[in-house]
Amino acid sequence: METLSAYFAHGSSIEPTARALFVHPNTVRYRLGQVADLTGFTPSRPRDALTLQIALALGRLGAR
Prior knowledge:
CATH class: Mainly Alpha
Structural class: mainly alpha
CATH architecture: Orthogonal Bundle
Order of helices and strands: HHHH
Helix content: over 70%
CATH topology: Arc Repressor Mutant, subunit A
CATH superfamily: PucR C-terminal helix-turn-helix domain
Shape: globular
Radius of gyration: 11 Å
């Protein structure tokens, strides 16, 4: 969730996300691939990204 949130916060860009998380860009790619495998939604596709952003927001609301 942290990687996905950072990815969206940095404009869906791998390099700034990696710098913000202090990891290698390939690590970000791997983690985003894991998100796609788990959810069936690819974060780089606009429609899937919207679905994932809504899911993150709902998850945060449900945690309160």
